Every structure is written in C-alpha cells, then in structure tokens.
Amino acid sequence: MPDLTPDIGAFVSIEKNELQCIFDALKKDGYTLAGPTVSNNASTPGEGAIVYDEIETVEDLPIGWTDVQGPGSYQLQRRNDNAYFGYVVGPQSWKKFLFPPQATLMTVRRENGSFVVESQAEDAPRYALIGVRGCELHALLIQDHVFLNGPYIDTHYKARREQTFVLAVNCTEPGGTCFCTSMGTGPKVGPGFDLALTELDDIFIVEIGSEVGRMVMRSVKWRPSGAFELQTKRTALAEATKSMGRTLETSDLPNLLYQNLDHPFWREVGERCLSCANCTMVCPTCFCSDILEVSELGGAASERVRVWDSCFSMNYSHVHGGNIRPRTKSRYRQWLTHKFASWIDQFGESGCVGCGRCITWCPVGIDVTESIDAIREEV
Amino acid sequence: MLNTITAPTTPLFDTPPMFAHPARVTAIKDEAYATATYEIEFEDDDLKQHYAFRAGQFNMVYLPNIGEVPISLSSDPAKTGVMGHTIRYAGNVTRAISRLRVGDTVGIRGPYGTAWPLERIHGNDVCIVTGGIGLAPLRPVIYHIINNRSDYGRVYLLYGARTPIDMLYTEQFEDWEAHGIEIHQTVDRADESWKGHVGVVPMMFYHLRLNPKKTTVLTCGPEIMIHFVIFEALARRIPKEQIYVSMERNMKCGIGLCGHCQFGPTFVCKEGPVFAYAAIEPFFGVEDF
C-alpha cells in the first residue's frame, strides 16, 4: 500500500475546500480550533475587527474580508475576492490562548489554622491555532523563551503550549503598519509550525512542518505541488517582502537606546503618549503580569489570579514610598528599550516581531518605527 | 548575563513555582518603629530540613486573602530550620503582617535571587554601608562574618537611620563590636537621647581610613543613599568591581516571569537583588529608570 502521507518538509497542494478536512481531522484529534473570525459588530460601518476566537468550520473564517491599517487606524473592508486569509493581523494575538488575560493559578483554602494550596485542576485546552502568521509564530517562540527557559518555568503556559498545533499561513499581502521584513520574522513563516499554508487563487500550498502535521494530512486529499504553483508562491512571498508598510533600521539598536536614555525624544513622546497600555495589550510578545488575590466573601478561601499587566500602568513599578516610573516618558522609554534593547540581553533576541499592532492600535498613532528613527537622527 | 555573583538558586520545591508553603510564626520581636522580626518555620518537616538560603536572598511571604510580598532574609544563614524576616509595616500586606501573632500561619516560597559575594571576598576588609531597614538583608552577612571571623580582615558597619527609633538591632551592636565589627552610627534627626553623629550615612566614610585595594563595599538602602555611597567609595579609589549593591523593585512573582522588577537588562529577582556595581553602572542613577 502506498504511503498516503507527505514527508516533513514536503510541499503539497490542496483544493481550498479541503481546508475543512484539515479542521475536521484536528477536531477528531481532540483539538479546539482557535482562529480568525469577523467580530459580530462588523456590520456597523467603522466598527468591527478580525479577532481570534474558537471556531468550528471554515465558514467562521473572515472569507472575503480585509483590514486597512495605519497609525491609530483600522478599517474592515470587503475584498473583491473570496480569499480565506486576505487580511493582516487584528488587535488580538495568540497569547490570549496560551497566556490567557486572566487565569487562576491556584486556590488557597484555610483549614485548621493553616491553609492548603490547591492547583486549579485545569485540563489544559488543546488548541489548534489556525492562521498563524510568520511574525506571530516568531512571537510564540519568543514567549516560549520567556516562560519555558527557566530556571523557573511557567507550568500553566507549558501545559497549554506543549499540546498546541500550529497551522501557519504565509503572508502575501502585508498591511500598512507591517515591518516583519525589518525584524526578520516574515512574511514567510519560519520553523515551528505543524502545517503552513500559502493561499493562491484557487488552491492552498501546504508545507508539512512536523510529524503531527503529517498525520493530519492523512485525512486530506492532496497532490504534490507543481513547479508553477511553487513558483507562484515564491513570487508572491518575494513581492510581500518588498511591500511592507513600514521599515525599521535594526543595526546596533541596543547601544543606540542605552546611550540615549536622556534623549529629548522621550519627553516629546511622553507628551503624546496616553499611557493607556494598548500597545502592550496588543503586543504578541509582551508578557508582564500581575497577581490578584481574589478572596471569597467569608475569607475561607481565596484565589491567586494572574492577569495581564503593563509597564504603562500606574502601579507597575510601585515600591513603598513611591513609583519608580511616575511619568509617562519614563514608562514609554521602559517599553521601547525593553522591546528593542534589554530583551536582547535577557533572551538573546529582539522582543519585537514587526507585526505593527502597537502602531495600529495606539489611539494617538505613535509609531515605533518613527520613535527609533527620531532617536537615530539626532545621534 | 551581566551579573556573575551567583547563579540563581535551583528550585527547592517540587510544586508549581508560585505555590506558597504553609509556615508558622514562632517568634515576633519588635525592632524599631513599625518594624518587627518574624521567625518563621515551615510546617512541613522535609521542607524545614532542606531549606537553606544565602545572605542577601529573599522569600516571597504570602498571607491568604491579602497578598504576597518579597522580603529579604535577615537571620543567620547557618541556622537552619528557621527563617527570619525583618518587616517594616508599609503597604497592604505588611500591615496585615503587623497583626499576626505567634502560632499564625503564613505562606513562604523561596529563597530567590542572588547573594552577597561572601566566599569571593575572603581575606578582604568589608565595609557594610546601609540605612534604616536596609540593614535587614545585611544582617546575615554580619552573622556569617562573625561565624567565620578569620576569613575576613577589618569589618566596618556604617549605619544610618532617620531617627534613633528607626535603628534596627541596636541591642546586638555590643556583641557585634565584641567580634570586631567597627560600628559607626548616624541619624538624620537626633532626639535628646542621641549622643552620636547627625548626618547622612555616606558621610561616615570620612571617619574611616580604608585600604582601597582590599576593601569590599556592600550597600543596601534608598537609591539616593546608594548613589552617594558609591560616590564616596569611588572617591576612595575602591574599584567598582568591589562595590556590591542590593536593589529594590516591585516584584509579583520573584522568579523572573512577571516582568515587574526589570532594571535595564536585568530582572532584579533573578540577576539581583545583589549586583556588582560594575554590572549595573550604565543604568544606575538614570532618572526614573
């Protein structure tokens, strides 16, 4: 009997409607599908976004939709075709599934004058992430390095991450705030996926990235990709590489920032920045969290709840007697130097993947690429 | 990374890293105004036996229904089975701690962070410079030096406080002096009982004749104090590699995951709290950093 599964590293082609077979196979394997979908307020003009949520079928995908993005602006629009993945990235990132905005880490119950700590007996959900872009896959790997490299590891994240399936998508139409080419994270997806799609006019090219991905393809009708299809894919990716909405000069960034901690730019940007924390909430790599003590009314039990926090928040740097960063300019400086300089010292790589979310979702349109340029110019 | 004093401790607990372990308050001793030392022992015998810390490290101290704070260990590291925490009542959690009584239970996880370089500085003179509650994370150093007195040369303690009632451990000073610790005290504001120096602690350097080649400075206190301690130490030609600083930042997890304690490229909970000054020099003193 011939082997019906393509090899790891192989490129195969599938009809577009076969994507549902991939979904079905993943669901049969016990995965919960998490993917892009149009938010339900999309019918109101000027409202709506492509969000990541649990999905069931390909019908839930934002087929025929796109998003037009610029500093402080995001508009959903109809496309004039029925592309499945014809949008860029929305306000959400995959971290909401692996590092949820709110998670109970443990429950503490008072007993006999002492207490017992119970782990939240969570059956970690098994997510198949559908439509992960190159920049986003890179962001997942960056968060892996934050949470899993020790000496202490985030067991909560680990449980979810270990059983995550990644169905990636190559980007062929970057958006107005994208600069993944500058950060070296896209538009082509790098290693770390199980399957990677490239959407052409009437087919998907599927690259097999792992044994798990290979097994999923057993349930799908595929054929080896033709030379012309592969050439079309290469051309599309090469075009995408050149059509980024933004660029960022990354050479010697850590030194540039460390040597300009007193640059007048910080004061200028501090006057525009609202300290609203949007950039950190939409950022796919930002990992800061706070821990809340949520007490039962009677006090017999309480939960330790981890919530996303931001270096822009009021209490983030509070120590007795005051706040280390009481002013917006110092908080913005902390964020930017962390992303582009100290992250490299901490984890050996940049904390920015060039997805452009922080530019799009900044209410006043502060643009990281312009920030870096402003500091660079004066040198 | 930047700091090479000591690698972070390997996790002691076999449970998820954020789990607090029940521990009993076995003694409470008032130390100074709104400050007391709590002796705490794990309820679990195995933990109690195996727990060990090094001078300069901290624990996360947890109160059910209230919250959790990082507190440095202030007891003798050679004394196993008991953890000492000197706590000033400043915030939500520490005020709740002020209501604890002997026999009450708290949660403990740790020890975390880097330690003072006590083995590396054998044979050196040691100049401990600190203010107020900053003496707490340095008391284990003094215990260690007394226990191993011949490993060290001259040992100075320059200690300042706002007022005389803010001074910690004063009843131990006689004993420390008997073990060859030269103590120089000062206060910002004297009262009628005070017969000693008045002024800020960095000025106490002027009372010493230090040998810069073989003197190590260990300092902990408000950042503005540390700033001037470093200034005075460098002015005496003490190399920046021989100055060690314990930093304070907001901490929620203590294990390098929550992000709060970042200080430039470092996580104070992992690469600190004790740093060689040479490692953090570019960032120390940057306003609001």
CATH architecture designation of the largest domain in chain B: 3-Layer(aba) Sandwich
Side by side, the strands of the main sheet of chain B go 10-9-8-7-11-12-15
Main interface by residue count: A-B, 54 and 51 residues
Largest sheet: number of strands, sense, barrel closure of chain B: 7 strands, mixed
Care to give the gist of this entry?
With 379 residues, chain A is α+β, with helices and mostly antiparallel strands.
Textual characterization of the structure:
The complex is a heterodimer of chains A (379) and B (289). Helices cover 31% and strands 23% of the residues of chain A. Chain A is of the alpha+beta class and 379 residues long. Chain A folds into 2 domains: 11-102 and 122-242, no CATH class; 253-288 and 308-378. In chain A, the strands form 4 sheets. Chain A has an 8-stranded mixed sheet with strand order 3-2-8-9-10-11-1-12, with helices on both faces. The N and C termini of chain A lie far apart (67 Å). Chain B is of the alpha/beta class and 289 residues long. A 7-stranded mixed sheet of chain B has the order 10-9-8-7-11-12-15. Chain B has a 6-stranded antiparallel sheet with strand order 4-3-6-1-2-5. The longest helix of chain B is centred in the last third of the chain and has 13 residues, at 223-235. The radius of gyration of chain B is 18 Å and the shape is globular. Classes of the chains: A alpha+beta (379), B alpha/beta (289).
Task: Please give the structural blueprint.
The complex is a heterodimer of chains A (379) and B (289).
Chain A: E1 11-15, H1 19-28, E2 32-38, E3 50-54, E4 65-70, E5 73-78, H2 95-98, E6 102-111, E7 114-119, E8 127-132, H3 134-148, H4 155-162, E9 165-169, H5 180-183, E10 195-199, E11 203-208, H6 211-216, E12 223-224, H7 227-242, H8 253-258, H9 264-272, H10 278-282, E13 289-295, E14 301-308, E15 318-319, E16 322-323, H11 328-347, H12 357-360, H13 368-378
Parallel strand pairs in A: 2-8, 8-9, 9-10
Antiparallel strand pairs in A: 1-11, 1-12, 2-3, 4-5, 6-7, 6-14, 10-11, 13-14, 15-16
Helix pairs in contact in A: 9-11
Chain B: E1 21-32, E2 35-42, H1 45-50, E3 58-63, E4 67-72, E5 83-88, H2 92-97, E6 105-112, E7 125-131, H3 139-147, E8 155-161, H4 173-178, E9 181-187, E10 197-198, E11 215-220, H5 223-235, E12 243-246, E13 262-263, E14 266-267, E15 274-276, H6 277-280
Parallel strand pairs in B: 7-8, 7-11, 8-9, 9-10, 11-12
Antiparallel strand pairs in B: 1-2, 1-6, 2-5, 3-4, 3-6, 12-15, 13-14
